[in-house]
Design a protein that fits this description.
The complex is a heterodimer of chains A (about 160) and B (about 180). Chain A is built from six helices and six strands, in the order H-H-E-H-E-H-E-E-E-E-H-H. Chain A has helices at about 1-15, 25-30, 45-55, 75-85, 135-145, 150-155, and strands spanning about 35-40, 60-70, 90-95, 105-110, 115-125, 125-135. The termini of chain A are far apart. Chain B is of the alpha+beta class. Chain B is globular. Chain B has helices at about 1-15, 30-35, 45-50, 60-70, 95-100, 170-180; strands spanning about 40-45, 75-80, 105-110, 120-125, 130-140, 140-150. Helix content of chain B is about 30%, strand content about 30%. The chains are: A alpha+beta (about 160), B alpha+beta (about 180). Strand 3 (about 90-95) of chain A pairs antiparallel with strand 1 of chain B.
Chain lengths: ~160, ~180
């Protein structure tokens, strides 16, 4: 009986995972971007639940969406992306590489109480990933400088 | 009479509200960004800096001093442009940055090399306080611009290297990074 109650609570939690403003809008914009097709990621709810409890590498919550397909983003489109992200988001890091497949890595951030909410966008000609995460100050500072945790996760 | 008194008050108010800190410079060089093989923009305003600096320990005296300095800053802005070939960009492109430096800005470092990197460091000094800093590092294949806005403790400045998007710029730091110890 206890097991059943726990399972029910877990399922309820997973079903009730909130979609944050900003992420949904940008994901919606990417959904309609020419050449991109969203790839469903199974088990994301469970992974998110684990992150809520364990906080690996200073990450307290996350959402992500992955896309396949050849596509390009101009600087103007990147500016539109942050506009879609909503109030408070600021572009903190923007990396543009024309080498190889033509890549973008962008980190937008806004305060979330004592933590920082970041929106990470990575794109090359074949894959595009959008990650929203709530991170602590150390992870944010490390990400700005080295782009190793969230950006690596997105890649 | 009333109007001239009003105008005088207005003028005084504007003068008193003049910024105590250096203003953020426009580091955008769109022509270079379009031609660069890789460009990196880092923009951290005061609010983000204050949040990001919380990870610096308050127990360690050095980290506490750096944190105190960072929390008073209005912003850190970094632009890096990398090119595939040496000489692919005009080193005079940074003239647009130099032109923004007013009379309170002084060049405190000037290293010139025909084949390697040229480094210029400017500080905005108001009284005894340094309230702004610009670093222009021009290598044959890479241009880096750093603008720090706010009160700066020059003794602590080196500790910002490698943090908050400020690249490793000293020779020792670059060597350490190259050796993978960073």
């Amino acid at each position: 009986m206890t097991k059943r109650a726990l399972l029910a609570a877990l399922l309820l939690t997973l079903c009730a995972l909130p979609a944050f403003a900003g992420f949904g809008e940008v994901a919606g914009m990417l959904d309609s971007h020419h050449g991109l097709k969203r790839v469903p990621v199974p088990g994301i709810g469970l992974a998110r639940f684990v992150v809520w409890i364990v906080h690996p590498k200073g990450v307290h919550d996350f959402e992500f969406a992955t896309y396949e397909g050849e596509s390009e983003f101009s600087r103007g489109e990147m500016a539109a992306l942050v506009a879609h992200a909503g109030a408070g988001y600021q572009p903190v890091v923007q990396v543009r590489s024309t080498r190889g497949k033509g890549e973008w890595t962008c980190i937008y951030a806004r305060p979330a109480g004592e933590r920082i909410e970041v929106l990470v966008f990575t794109h090359d000609s074949e894959d595009t990933v959008l990650v929203r995460a709530e991170v602590d100050a150390e992870t944010f500072a490390r990400e700005v400088h080295e782009r190793k945790t969230l950006t690596a996760m997105a890649r | 009479m009333r109007i001239s008194r009003f105008l005088f008050s207005f003028l005084v108010a504007i003068t008193l509200s003049a910024p105590l800190y250096a203003q953020r410079l426009n580091l955008e060089l769109p022509d270079l960004a379009a031609r660069a093989a890789e460009s990196v923009d880092v923009t951290l305003d005061g609010q983000m800096l204050r949040l990001a600096s919380k990870f610096l320990s308050s127990d360690d005296a050095d980290e506490r001093a750096v944190r105190d300095m960072v929390q008073k800053l209005s912003g850190i802005y970094v632009r890096t442009y990398e090119f595939d070939k040496a000489g692919e960009y005009d080193r005079d492109a940074v003239e647009a940055i130099r032109k923004q430096l007013g009379p309170s800005w002084k060049k405190i470092v000037n290293i010139k090399s025909r084949s390697r990197e040229n480094v210029e460091i400017y500080t905005d000094t108001r009284g005894d306080a340094v309230t702004g800093l610009v670093v222009i590092s021009a290598e044959p294949k890479e241009l880096t611009l750093v603008n720090i806005v706010g009160p700066i403790d020059l003794d602590r400045l080196a500790s910002l290297e490698g943090q908050f998007g400020i690249p490793h710029m000293s020779k020792e730091s670059k060597e350490r990074k190259g050796a993978g110890h960073d």
